[in-house]
Amino acid sequence: MGDQPAADRDAIRQTLKALLRPGDVAELRAFGVQSKDHWRPHVESGYFSDHERMADIAYELSSERARGVYLTLNPVEQQLLTRAKNIVRVPKKGEATSDDNITSRRWLPVDVDPIRASGISATEAERKAAWEVMRAVASYLKLEGWPTPIVGDSGNGYHLLYRVDLPTDDGGLVGDVLDALAFRFDTEGATVDRVNYNASRIWKLYGTVNRKG
């Protein structure tokens, strides 16, 4: 077998520094966690104002072969710290962050994925198709005067994150933007995901490993 991908603690820290402001509260959520306390893979989550501790726990979760580690892109109400402050645990039903728990929108997320069979890793050709769509979107928005985005690797495709300053209830603006980008730039090989419009959207934490295929 080939070498397995490994989580990168420094990259996780850099990601949190880029996405969060000091004192921001964010939810950390991991899927497919395997541990001695549970006989089958499960979800673990918690709320963090201590971003250094958040980075350490995200690294541990990813190193212990969680299927994926994610965070809320937009700031979360401080009161949610009472659910699980700077720790992770198995959440109760209904405890995931909702749009009502988000205080504002800081990021407009663009997710470009190759068209492929579910549950298997993208081929290099499929990733190239996603790269080309992502580059076309970024070039177009740059010409339209948008700021320089954060560019990320989703595992099988690519991300663009644009800094915005919008209310939680944006009147459907983010969804309209994603629909317009998909209409203009989707190809037979890759598409812009139209569903990432909700304020409480969780996003891959860069530096962790996605194990989708």
Low-confidence stretches: none
If you compute it from the alpha carbons, what radius of gyration comes out, rounded to the nearest whole angstrom? 17 Å
Distinct helical segment count: 4
Distance between the termini: 15 Å
User: Tell me, what's the shape?
Assistant: globular
Strand order of the largest sheet: 2-1-3-8
Strand content: 25-35%
Number of E-type strands: 8
What is the arithmetic mean of pLDDT?
Answer: 93
Structural class: alpha+beta
Order of helices and strands: HEEHEEHEEHEE
Helix content: 25-40%
Q: How many strands, what sense, and barrel or not for the largest sheet?
A: 4 strands, antiparallel
Q: What keyword list fits this structure?
A:
alpha+beta; 4-stranded antiparallel β-sheet; globular
Explain this structure.
With 213 residues, the chain is α+β, with helices and mostly antiparallel strands. 27% of the residues lie in helices and 26% in strands. The protein contains four helices and eight strands. The radius of gyration is 17 Å and the shape is globular.
Question: Could you give a quick summary of the protein structure above?
Answer:
The protein is α+β, with helices and mostly antiparallel strands and 213 residues long. Helix content is 27%, strand content 26%.
